[in-house]
Specification:
Blueprint: E1 6-17, E2 20-32, E3 37-41, H1 48-55, E4 63-68, E5 71-72, H2 78-88, E6 89-92, H3 104-114, H4 119-132, H5 148-160, E7 166-170, H6 178-194, E8 198-202, H7 206-210, E9 214-219, E10 222-223
Parallel strand pairs: 3-8, 3-9, 6-7, 7-8
Antiparallel strand pairs: 1-2, 1-4, 4-5, 9-10
Helix pairs in contact: 3-4, 3-5, 4-5, 5-6
This protein binds adenosine-5'-diphosphate and magnesium ion (MG).
The site of magnesium ion has 3 residues, from helix 1.
Amino acid sequence: MSNAALELRQISKSFVQGGSHLDVLRDCSITIQPGELTALVGPSGCGKSTLLHIAGLLEQPGSGEVWVGGVNAARANDAERTRLRRQFIGYVYQMHHLLPEFSARENVVLPQMIAGVARTTATRRADELLGLVGLTERLHHRPAELSGGEQQRVAIARALANKPRLLIADEPTGNLDPHTADGVFAMLLTLAREAGLAALIATHNLDLAQSLDRTLRLADGHVV
Ligand code: ADP
Ligand code: MG
């Protein structure tokens, strides 16, 4: 049992590529309490995205336990993992991963409807969230009609749409110019704090990491 927002216990993950065996994560353990905002730092290629994919239930660990919502998701079947992901986790990627043929509003409405929320309720929440990220004038724009910073703000609104308890973000401002990155990062933190979310945010930027509650460093497959 775990009351933490996220608990990774002795996670290991290897990849086999071209006949060689790469141990990316070795006995990684992380506990994030409810409401705790945690940065994950480390050089490119050290395994941050791999760790976040496992924490976000997008990928299975080679071994170890992933506790989310009081359940060890590493033992759960696909349907249960999907339910846990929808109910507890909001995910923001480095590249927004918005659906290109849908408007900003629709991108925030769709995950709610998939979770069973009625369209009118989902639309009201989408408009509210897009307002919070300053995009009230952009509801009907498609991703290609938005700037990079605006696209990431839609992605943040989408991640919050189903009221997750845990926000996972993988270098969410890594593709933005420094000025825009600072604004988007500050917005992400404000919304996470207001909603009392726990967060695990990978970033290269040590200044941004310092604005969180705690920084974890990933090196040689271990969290230090
Ligand atoms: P980071 O996000 O810290 O830059 P990643 O987690 O993306 O690091 O990658 C860690 C290491 O694992 C890299 O050396 C990468 O090449 C390797 N890797 C990641 N995903 C795969 C995969 N699906 N197959 C093989 N190797 C992978
Ligand atoms: Mg990465």
